[in-house]
Amino acid sequence: MGRQWGYILFIFIVFNESTFLINNYMKFIIVVLFALAATTYASKTQDQILALLQTGTKASDAIDTVFGLLNDLKQSNIDAQFAADQKNETDEWVGAQTIEQFTKIKSLNQKLFSQAIENRANYEEVLKQTKNYLAWNEARRDEIARKIDALQDNQCFSNQLFVKSIKHNQEALEVIRLLKQDVAGYIINGDSFEFTQVKAQSVAEKLKQYSNLFQDHQIKSFLALANGQEEGASSGHGATLAEKVLGVLEGLESELSASLENLKQNEINASWELAGWVSLSEAEISSLEVEYERKQVFADRTATQIQAALAQQAKSKIILQESQDALDQAQADLESRRADYAEAKAKRQEENAILDEVIIMFKKQVASWSGR
Ligand SMILES: *[C@@H]1O[C@H](CO)[C@@H](O)[C@H](O)[C@H]1NC(C)=O
Ligand SMILES: *[C@@H]1O[C@H](CO)[C@@H](O)[C@H](O)[C@H]1NC(C)=O
């Protein structure tokens, strides 16, 4: 190219007296090309043209040669543009393919990265739930242990109450028995029954000590009998009265026995139930302990899996970034090729416009010579 521009410069030097307008850009090019022509590109062809013109060889040959050179220059730009257009198509196609491939790779890596995040989040959720379970398990075992302690304390206390109640009950039974013996003694003797108010009063006092064990109406009916005896003493129905008193006492005795029996049964049932509950609860505690161990191992393993998932996530992120970079690079490459193409094309167009102008000027010059 430089050498060809050298020719143009040469042509200007020869034919152009700088009488026509040349814009600054062209001047610049001419100056640059002059420098090139003067140094690197001073060629044999240039010398030949110079020789042709200087030796006055047929002017028409020289003119043809110059036209030929100018057209060659234009043609070479047109050829170069044709090649550039071809390359343009290839570049566009290759660029599109490359971008498509990298886009696919990137979206695949994007998916893998999302999966890695999800995977890590899942493990974290599992660990959270496992830890919740472990906390629950611990709290549950504490609660059961506390309940067992509390119930055993209660049981101990109620055992003492039970013992007291039995003692109280048996004492009351003892009193009744003694009273019965007294009253029975009157009946067996067949003696005139002297169940004085003093006696009745003392029996009533003894019974009152245990009043919590007797129904109020029983005490009252007994006292009524005792009082009635005093009124009926003169009528001589003592034996019948004694039998009535005995009947009431026996009623009281059997009631006390039944209540004692019930007391025992209750206590047995309560103890039995407690024992059953404690043994079930202890079984639950030991199964909770087994499950705790198992879940603890699981939690440790999950924590390790979270570490691995985090590493995988970090790696996926880097790979995604790399494929994003590759995609960016492919896009930048294509853009830079496009820019180069556009720049080279504009330059060729500009050159060809200049060449067209030069051809016009040259034609005018030639016409002016012919006219001379
Ligand atoms: C004790 O338990 C038995 C059977 O479980 C029941 O039949 C009985 O009525 C209970 N006794 C008392 C006093 O609760
Ligand atoms: C190819 O040519 C078209 C049309 O001039 C242009 O828009 C595009 O930037 C060019 N691309 C390349 C890679 O040269």
Task: Report a brief summary of the structure.
The chain crosses the membrane at residues 7-36. This protein is mainly α and 372 residues long.
Structure write-up:
It is a single chain. The chain has 2 domains: 2-109 and 318-370, no CATH class; 125-294, no CATH class. Helices cover 90% and strands 0% of the residues. It has 7 helices and no strands. The two termini are 34 Å apart. One 2-acetamido-2-deoxy-beta-D-glucopyranose (NAG) binds next to helix 7. The chain crosses the membrane at residues 7-36.
List the keywords.
transmembrane helix, 372 residues, 2 domains, mainly alpha, binds 2-acetamido-2-deoxy-beta-D-glucopyranose, 0% strand, coiled coil
Secondary structure class reads mainly alpha
Query: What distance lies between the first and last C-alpha atoms, to the nearest angstrom?
Result: 34 Å
Percent in strands: under 5%
Approximately how much helix is present in the residues? over 70%
Q: Over all CA atoms, what is the radius of gyration?
A: 64 Å
Q: What's the tally of helices?
A: 7
Morphology call: rod-shaped
Tell me, rounded to a whole number, the average pLDDT.
79
Low-confidence stretches: 15-42, 229-237
* Overall strand count: 0
- SSE order, one letter for each helix or strand: HHHHHHH
Largest sheet: none
Overall structural domain count: 2
Bound molecules: 2-acetamido-2-deoxy-beta-D-glucopyranose
Keywords: Coiled coil, Membrane, Transmembrane, Transmembrane helix
Transmembrane segments: 7-36
Coiled coil: 320-347
